[in-house]
C-alpha cells in the first residue's frame, strides 16, 4: 500500500536527490584573486567575486560539464519513485532498493572525483575546497534508502510469517 512508512522514506529520498540537481555541491575560492570554482550537478565553472561577494564575470578556468552527476541523480529519483508504486511486489522493491543504493554510491564517488581530482588543481592547488549543502544530500538519501529497505524487509517477513501460520 502506498501509505506505508517506506513510501515516506522513498519520497524524501527523491526530494533529497532533486536538491542535488539545484544546489551547489562543492566550491573553492582563491582569496588573492577572488576567483571561485563551483561544482554543481551539471557543470563546474569559475567566476570572480565582486566586492559584495556576489558572482561577477567569468573566471579564467574554462567551464566543464559534469552531467554524470546530474544523470545519476535523475536515475536515483526515477528508481525511488518507481519503487514507491511497486508495493505489491516487495521482493521487486528490495531489488530496486539495492540498485538505488549502488546508484547513490556512484553519485557520491562521482562527486568526490570531480571535487578532488578535477577541481582540486584549478584554483589554489594544494588547498581543499568546501563541501556545500548539495554534497550531503546523497548521504541523506543513502540513509533514507536503507531505512526504506529495512521496513520493506520487515513487511515481507511479516507476510511470510502469516503464511506459515495458515
Descriptive terms for the model:
166 residues; alpha+beta; Butyryl-CoA Dehydrogenase, subunit A, domain 3; six-stranded antiparallel beta sheet; 4 helices; 6 strands; elongated; DUF4293 family protein; transmembrane helix; DUF4293
What is the CATH domain class? Mainly Alpha
Helical stretch tally: 4
| Spatial separation of the terminal alpha carbons | 22 Å
Sheet with most strands: 6 strands, antiparallel
Enter the CATH topology name: Butyryl-CoA Dehydrogenase, subunit A, domain 3
Q: What structural category do the secondary elements indicate?
A: alpha+beta
Strand count: 6
InterPro entries: DUF4293
Pfam families: DUF4293
Organism: Pontibacter chinhatensis
Keywords: Membrane, Transmembrane, Transmembrane helix
Summarize the structure.
The protein is of the alpha+beta class and 166 residues long. The protein is built from 4 helices and 6 strands.
What can you tell me about this protein's structure?
The chain is an alpha+beta fold and 166 residues long. The model has no long low-confidence stretch (mean pLDDT 89). The protein starts with a helix and ends with a helix. The radius of gyration is 20 Å and the shape is elongated. It comes from Pontibacter chinhatensis. Keywords: Membrane, Transmembrane, Transmembrane helix. This is DUF4293 family protein. It holds the Pfam family DUF4293.
Amino acid at each position: 500500500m502506498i501509505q506505508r512508512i517506506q513510501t515516506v522514506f522513498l519520497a524524501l529520498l527523491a526530494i533529497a536527490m532533486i536538491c542535488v540537481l539545484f544546489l551547489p555541491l562543492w566550491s573553492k575560492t582563491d582569496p588573492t584573486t577572488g576567483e571561485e570554482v563551483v561544482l554543481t550537478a551539471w557543470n563546474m565553472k569559475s567566476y570572480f567575486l565582486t566586492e559584495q561577494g556576489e558572482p561577477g564575470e567569468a573566471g579564467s578556468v574554462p567551464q566543464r560539464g559534469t552531467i554524470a552527476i546530474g544523470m545519476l541523480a535523475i536515475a536515483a529519483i526515477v528508481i525511488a519513485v518507481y519503487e514507491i508504486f511497486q508495493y505489491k511486489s516487495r521482493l521487486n522493491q528490495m531489488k530496486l532498493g539495492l540498485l538505488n543504493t549502488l546508484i547513490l554510491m556512484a553519485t557520491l564517488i562521482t562527486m568526490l572525483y570531480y571535487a578532488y581530482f578535477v577541481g582540486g588543481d584549478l584554483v589554489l592547488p594544494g588547498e581543499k575546497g568546501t563541501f556545500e549543502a548539495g554534497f550531503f544530500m546523497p548521504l541523506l538519501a543513502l540513509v533514507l534508502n536503507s531505512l526504506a529497505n529495512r521496513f520493506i524487509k520487515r513487511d515481507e517477513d511479516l507476510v511470510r510469517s502469516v503464511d506459515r501460520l495458515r
